[in-house]
Amino acid sequence: MTPQTEPSGFSRFIAEMRRRHVVRFALGYAAAAFVVLQLAEIVFPAFGLGEAGLRILVVVVTLGFPPATVLAWVFDITDEGIKRTEGRGPDGYGPRLALLGVTIAIVGGLGLWLASRGVFSTAATDAGVFDAGQPPLELAVYDPSAPITSIAVLPLEDFSENGGQAYFTSGLHEELIAKLSQVDGLRVVSRTSVSQYAGTAKTATQIGRELGVDALIEGSVKRDGDQVRITLQIIHAPSDSHIQTLQFDRTVTNVLALQTEIAHAVVHEIEGIHEESEFTQVAMDVEPDAQEAYLKGKYEYSRGTPEGYQMALDYFKEAVDDDPEFAAAIAGMAGARFLVHSTNGEISEDEIGLARAEAAHALQLDSGSMEAMEVFAFIERSIPLIPAPVGAPATLESTDRILVADAVIESVSVLGTDWASAMTSLGQRLEEQGRKRTMDGQRGGEVQQALAARQLIGAGRFGDATTLLREIVTSTPEAGPAWELLVRAEISEGDADEASAVVREWSESGASAAPTAAAVAVLDQAVRENGVRGYWGWSLARLEAKLASGGSVSHTDLAAALAGTDDNEAAFTHLAAAVAAGERGVLTLRTDPVWDRLRRDPRFTELAGQARAIRFAPGAAGGRGRGDPNGRRN
Predict the structure, then answer these.
(1) How many Å apart are CA 590 and CA 503, to the nearest integer?
(2) How far apart are CA 623 and CA 581, in angstroms?
(3) Residue 161 burial by CB count (10 A; 0-12/13-18/19+): exposed, middle or buried?
(4) Which residues in 240-269 are b (16+ Cβ under 10 Å) and which e?
(5) What is the mean pLDDT of the chain?
(6) pTM score, two decimals?
(7) Whose CA is closest to 278, among 378, 155, 368?
(8) Fewer CB within 10 Å: C terminus or N terminus of the chain?
(9) What residues contact 546, with CB distance under 8 A and at least 6 apart?
């Protein structure tokens, strides 16, 4: 007779778990948790909870598993109700209760540790559940009749095979932003600011709050050869409500015309905008191959690397070879050539001169091309900042005048690039390189740095402006304009508390002309009571006091403070005066949130159109108050 082998301890443990139905319970718990999480993913966004609420639920479900499993070991559900599971052997009831107590203590300690790390409070705040420091985020109710004054176009997804249409998708995204930016009654968030949301899991309400916009556009592109399907959704951000879905199934024969068509359709779906919008029409006779090469060139150009600029130059050349009168491609060729030969450490005067001539030629071919105007403007302004090769005389000089459509336009003083921010991707890279040279070169003093920051604010890139301005006030606490711009950048992001903190820091720096401690106390109180509106009331009182004492204050600053306190009639009075005076501050009308409450007024539409004209008008923005980054009257 063969003696029976004694089961191992592990085998006995598994057998006991099965007898006590612990394994069955664990599988059931996992299945139930999966179902609950799936349902939460669908239901939570309807209540404004979204990702943050899901985060809380995942943590709670995970922490609940160990004590629930121990309870399954100690108790069992029978036909006669919940009873203590009878054990085998000497294990008494006491040790099992001790195990349950230890498990609960460990899980509770882990929960307290997570709470101390801000997991629950941050998640709850993001979800709008609670926050001791600020009011909860509440989902608004979508009112179709309410005007949409601000929008963000989120990065589009490329669903094409192997993701091979990134250049086409990127080009469509950029064109949507550019076309929507031409609508005077609509503030459009810059491409740089929305790029961080590529692939994000954040809800529309969270993104809308962070960007301070009424609506979002998200979507995808799927292209196979000449066939393309473009799907876009327009979402009311505060309520996370769907406004409209647009789908375009097209045979692509004219990419640029298709982009314009889609931009038109998007604007027409936004209540009231279509009656006021005017788009620059795309020439319909541009060769299809030239358009494809042009889009590929812009995609490489946007990488912002020397290799990308060289590849962009090759693509733009290909586009111009296919269509010699394609002004935007010629402007791209000029911009890429200039960047290749001004950033690689080997300055070629011949190549830079050729880039300048190409930009002028593009402007002559199409005097209304924003790409051509910006490339020419930034090349002209950047030439004096380019360091000459070591040992070589500096001979690069900016031209004085250029003939465009039989009209003589003065160059740098006309285009005002020391103040205005670029609106196209071609201009933005040139602007960034010029800003970098300003920061690194002999002219990189606080005024030039403040002007660079003002460009960023003008482009709606408030976070980037804040970073640069922080560097300025840290190294030069006496830089009053930089402090003022830093406060304005924080307010433009909707953070009145941080703006108040900056003013307090400025006061405590000991800098001359800094706000007094009493003024800071007044601001703190105003912000506590009225938030951003409280800041603008404080700012208005300071501006009026300065005027009363004989100081100089810009109409733009007064108009902003009046708009921020809901005195719209007075705001329009000063805004009209600012436009008439050609104040450079009016170039922020398309990007600064303070103007949102005025955007749907016909008077604003008219003034915004006049302000946009100042950008390139002879003798206007570039020639007024060049030394003052805030655009005050001198």
Answers:
(1) 26
(2) 11
(3) exposed
(4) bbebeebeeebebebbbbbbbebbeebbeb
(5) 75
(6) 0.64
(7) 368
(8) N
(9) 552, 553
Residue with tokens 């199934």: 249
Cβ atoms of 265 and 290 closer than 8 Å: no
Rounded to whole angstroms, the Cα distance separating 53 from 126 reads 8
What DSSP letter does each residue of 410-441 carry, written as one string?
A: ESHHHH-TTTPPP-SHHHHHHHHHHHHHHHHS
Which is nearest to 371 in space by CA: 384, 358, 389? 358
Amino acid identity for residue 115 in this structure: A
Non-local CB neighbours of 459 within 8 Å, separated by 6+ positions? 190, 192, 421, 422, 428, 591
The CA-CA-CA angle for residues 425, 325, 314, to 5°, reads 55
The DSSP secondary-structure symbol of 523 reads H
Q: Which residue has the tokens 């249409």?
A: 165
In angstroms, the CA 378 to CA 381 distance is 5
- The verdict on domain 286-294+303-444 having CATH code 1.25.40 is yes
Residue of 444, 455, 510 whose CA lies nearest to 477: 510
Question: Model confidence over 406-439: pLDDT tens digits?
Answer: 333 333 233 333 445 667 778 878 877 766 665 5
- Could you read off the pLDDT of 181-214 as tens digits, one per residue? 877 778 888 887 888 888 888 888 888 888 888 8
Q: Where are the alpha helices (DSSP H) in 75-147?
A: 93-116, 119-127
Q: Which of 331, 299, 302 is nearest to 317 (CA)?
A: 331
Taking residue 13's Cβ as centre, other Cβ atoms within 10 Å add up to 11
The continuous run of DSSP H or E covering 222 comes out as: strand 215-224
> Beta strand 187-188 with 227-236: parallel, antiparallel or unpaired?
unpaired
Residue 405: both structure tokens together: 């459509």
What is the token pair recorded at 87?
């054990």
Q: Name the residue type at position 112.
A: L
CATH number of 150-284: 3.40.50.10070
CA distance 44 to 54: 8
**Count of positions (residues) in the chain:** 634
Which are the contacts of 137, defined by CB distance < 8 A and separation ≥ 6? 48, 125, 126, 127, 128, 205, 209
Alpha-carbon distance of 372 to 374, in angstroms, equals: 6
Helix/strand/coil (H/E/C) assignment for every residue in 321-376:
HHCCCCHHHHHHHHHHHHHHHHHCCCCCHHHHHHHHHHHHHHHHHCCCCHHHHHHH
Query: What is the C-alpha separation between 223 and 250, in angstroms, rounded?
Result: 10
Please answer whether residues 151 and 189 qualify as being in contact, where contact means their C-beta atoms are separated by less than 8 angstroms.
yes
- pLDDT band for position 5 (50/70/90)? low
Given this model, what pLDDT does residue 126 score?
42
User: For the chain, where do the domains classified as CATH 3.40.50.10070 start and end?
Assistant: 150-284
Q: Where in the chain is the domain with CATH 1.25.40?
A: 286-294+303-444
pLDDT band at 391 (very low <50, low <70, confident <90, very high): very low
Contacts of 214 (CB under 8 A, 6+ apart): 148, 149, 150, 151, 208, 236, 237, 238
